[in-house]
Specification:
The chain is of the alpha/beta class. It is about 35% helix and about 20% strand. A seven-stranded parallel β-sheet has the order 3-2-1-6-7-8-9, sandwiched between helices. A six-stranded parallel β-sheet has the order 12-11-10-13-14-15, sandwiched between helices. It has a two-stranded antiparallel ribbon with strand order 4-5.
């Protein structure tokens, strides 16, 4: 029996998406087409071999900054769709003009369409209501076959608020986790290494992470902080570190040469810090859980963040210095928690790997989109 053809149109050629495409080959004849490479927003170390089934589209036009950043238009997309002729078209988001063009192509050709999306929030992190814009998108996608949201807690917004009803299902992102399960179990040390793995941007609160680490360092000399080097708040973070006199205890990840090196960073760190003011959810949490790190995250991290239960398999609390330091002290005073939390977390995240998520997608699509 021939496999159905599945096309996923996605914004950025992220490594976990490329590996997910390969995992999906077991179930579908799959191709992923990306609007741009990862270099512009993530750096050259995010670039990996695209393989035989992924490619970056040519002649793509889009604003590179401002509120309309990422509104891609791929010239000649319809002709490329005719050539591949997918049975199922999966679109990464509603508001990309070329995604709408692909949806219209699928309707004309009697193909199935899925939109994969995160919850919709404004720039202040507030959940959007059924505005005029969303009424228009609901009408434009009125005959979509499925809306797959990235987490369970986004179902209500798209099902009820935006009116997609029973077409909404809960999905998830794929994570590149396989190598992380082999990292060594963390053990008691005189001082630990902390990781702020997210970009230095306002919603992730990197200044807050620096303030938290400063308190830890004052109590536990020898502690170290490793920070993601990307993001518009980099200069402000470096200034604050200098003001606190911590320059020799903070390392910025400026020398990563390849995606594969990221796993080595997690393996040498002990506790993940994510005091985000808001986030839809982060792979960094899954990576830390798979690695066996201690995990302290903000209770304002949605989706994946809700997998961390305060005091059970990590710590989940208000993004304040006092709250975070008190949870970090739990790991310091009770280092057996590293083992306890790792034994809980690794089985939780194992199904979220590329192969596990490919199987999950296949099961959802077999029950809905691909059924006769």
């Amino acid at each position: 029996m021939n496999k159905q053809k599945l096309l996923f149109l996605s914004s950025i050629a992220a490594p976990h998406q490329i590996k997910f495409c390969e995992a999906l080959q077991e179930y579908f004849q799959t191709e992923f087409w990306f609007y741009e490479s990862a270099e512009r927003t993530r750096g050259s170390w995010w670039q990996i071999d695209l393989g035989r089934h992924c490619r970056i589209l040519d002649n793509v036009f889009y604003p590179k900054s401002g509120r309309h950043e990422g509104r891609y238009w791929a010239s000649g997309l319809t002709g490329q769709l005719d050539q591949f002729n997918p049975d199922i078209v999966m679109l990464g988001g509603f508001s990309i003009p070329s995604n709408l063009a692909a949806h219209q192509w699928a309707r004309r050709k009697n193909k199935k369409t899925i939109v994969f999306t995160e919850r919709s929030r404004d720039r202040k992190g507030v959940l959007r209501k059924r505005s005029l814009g969303w009424r228009a998108l609901r009408w434009l996608y009125r005959d979509v076959d499925m809306v797959m949201v990235s987490a369970e807690d986004a179902v209500t917004q798209f099902r009820d608020e935006f009116g997609f009803g029973s077409k909404v299902v809960a999905g998830r992102y794929s994570s590149d986790l396989d190598d992380y399960f082999n990292h060594p179990m963390r053990e008691a040390k005189p001082a630990y290494t902390y990781l702020f793995a997210n970009r230095m941007t306002e919603i992730y609160n990197p200044i807050g992470a620096i303030e938290i680490f400063a308190q830890v360092l004052s109590r536990h000399p020898g502690s170290r902080l490793v920070m993601n080097a990307a993001g518009e708040m980099g200069d402000a973070c470096r200034v604050r570190i200098a003001e606190l006199g911590m320059g020799d205890t903070v390392e910025f990840l400026t020398n990563l040469k390849s995606w594969s090196e990221l796993g080595h960073v997690y393996a040498r760190c002990d506790i993940l810090l994510l005091p985000a003011n808001f986030s839809n959810g982060n792979f960094t949490i899954l990576e830390a859980m798979a690695s066996g790190m201690g995990v302290v995250v903000s209770n304002r991290v949605l989706g994946i963040g809700k997998m961390v239960r305060d005091g059970y398999n990590g710590f989940n609390c208000e993004p304040t210095t006092v709250s975070f330091v008190s949870r970090i002290e739990r790991y310091i005073q009770q280092p057996n928690l590293f083992k306890v939390h790792t034994e809980i977390n690794r089985p939780i995240v194992e199904p979220l790997s590329a192969s596990g998520t490919a199987k999950f997608f296949s099961e959802i699509l077999q029950l809905t989109v691909t059924k006769p």
